[in-house]
Amino acid sequence: MLLIILMGFTVADFAGNGLMNKQISKSESSTVDQEKQVFNNDYYEDSKAENKESIELIYELSVDDKIYYFESEDEIEQVLTKVVELSTENTKDIEVTIDGENVNIDFEAIPTLSAEIVERNFVMAGPNPTYTRNNEIVNDVSYEPSEVLAKLDFNEKVIVESVVKDSQNISNVTNVVEELLRLNSEPAEYTIESGDSASLIAEKNEMSLLELYELNPWLEKREKTLQIGEKLVVEKLIPELSIVNCYKATEINSIPPEVVYQEDNTIYSGLTVIAEEGEEGKELLKMDVDIVNDEIVNESIMESLVVTEPVSQLVLIGTAPVPEDGPAGFFVTPLNYYRLTSSYGPRWGKTHRGLDMAVSSGTTVKASDGGQVIFAGWDNAYGYRVDIDHGNGITTRYAHNSKLLVEYGEVVGQGETIAKSGNTGNSTGPHLHFEVIVDGNAVNPYDYIG
Ligand SMILES: [Zn+2]
After folding, report:
1. Ligand 1: centre distance to CA 225 (Å)
2. How many angstroms is it from 353 CA to the middle of ligand 1?
3. pLDDT along the chain (450 residues), means of 10
4. CATH code at 381?
5. Terminal-residue alpha carbon distance, the chain
6. Considering only Cβ atoms within 10 Å of each terminal Cβ, which end of the chain, N or C, has fewer?
């Protein structure tokens, strides 16, 4: 934030033309520093009446609570432009906004400061924001994501005003620039992210591990049990006067499809069917992103434009009553509870045809769907086995049972008890081996029982 109070001088005056040859008039600007301004004006008016020649003005630059005096406003311009130049990259031709007005700073006119300061500030700059920096403001709608540095601003309250020369100490441009760029260590909050360790957090914040421990005495003991989202105190190096980098960002965002539910009496109750997949839409977001000292301090969506409308997803909800016998058309887990000990797929160089669901012997085994029993009996490796045909080429198989409760040819309903589980046949512990067979091929049961 930069405010200029120069007794009626506008920002443009500060930027382009010299002050000294301007007429001084009463300020019309309403600013935060009314009291001071009034004092200055009064002083001037009073003095003018007595002796116009005796008035000598100097220029006061205040940055938050720090105050510096200069002989000319030109020197203040040098200070501020040098701070901008040393705090950011590619500032040439970038418009600096002062009190809402654009000011073109002539960087060529700035005297070269000592190499020592330049070096220090390269260190200060640290890792740069990942935004690209061009010198243009994007006004047209672009479909490409982009980040454009639109303007710079000061993060601290900067006020420039003329005051009557008295016994103030006059500052030197180089010294003030150096002072304004001096780094102060300030405590900051750090939120633990996935993959963080104490040493990584220290590294990320350019601190030593010891310094991190000193700020967080509990950390050393709890280092192994850090939780994502926990807060730590870290140190951040902040210059006296920071630059706000204001970016115009364009981002493409996906819009999730709306889900429309519709009841359907041709589908059994308990079943939902996705009838139409739906499609994500796309929207273009134009955002203002402000970055201070490599940290995003503000992110606002300024404009959004739907590029592609999302297509709704249609989900049918079954309402038809489930038949007591015969297939319901969907499958349920044959056990109320179990522990999966082997999933479908490759095992020991072969394909495991089903799921091994560990349960204690004698547990109720239910028909995954209604259908006709096409096998119920002893089958060597499978032990006591039941197969149920559900129509549409789908069969389910239940093996290693201790007791069978259905017979060949019987029609069963979904969820009906067909056997008691066991450990018969080629089995290394009590479990149900459950298969879903489609057109003669065993498939992954989880594609059916969910
Ligand atoms: Zn098995």
Report:
1. 39
2. 7
3. 41 33 33 39 46 76 91 84 74 48 44 26 24 32 56 80 88 91 87 89 89 90 85 88 81 88 80 82 83 84 81 87 75 94 85 94 95 93 94 92 94 92 94 95 91
4. 2.70.70.10
5. 58
6. C
Residues 268 and 383 in one domain: no
Q: Assess contact for 64 and 157: CB atoms under 8 A.
A: yes
Identify whether 67 is part of a domain.
Answer: yes
User: Is the domain of 159 the same as that of 107?
Assistant: yes
Q: For position 217, which CATH number holds? A: 3.10.350.10
Q: How far is the CA of 395 from the centre of ligand 1 (A)?
A: 16
φ, ψ of residue 32 to 5 degrees: the values are -70, -20
Question: How far apart are the CA of 434 and the centre of ligand 1, in A?
Answer: 7
**Distance in Å, CA 413 to ligand 1 centroid:** 24
**Global confidence as pTM:** 0.46
424 alpha carbon – ligand 1 mean position (Å): 12
Tell whether 165 is covered by a domain.
yes
Residues 290 and 153 in one domain: no
Residue 370 C-alpha to ligand 1 middle, in angstroms? 22
- Please tell me the distance between residue 273's alpha carbon and the centre of ligand 1 in angstroms: 30
CA torsion through residues 441, 442, 448, 450, sign: negative
> Does 189 reside within a domain?
yes
> Are 423 and 399 in a shared domain?
yes
Residue pair 419/401 in contact by the 8 Å Cβ criterion: yes
State whether 23 and 166 are in the same domain.
yes
Q: How far is the CA of 328 from the centre of ligand 1 (A)?
A: 26
**Centroid of ligand 1 to alpha carbon of 83 (angstroms):** 73
- Which structural domain, as residue segments, surrounds residue 222? 183-239
Please report whether residue 404 resides in a domain: yes
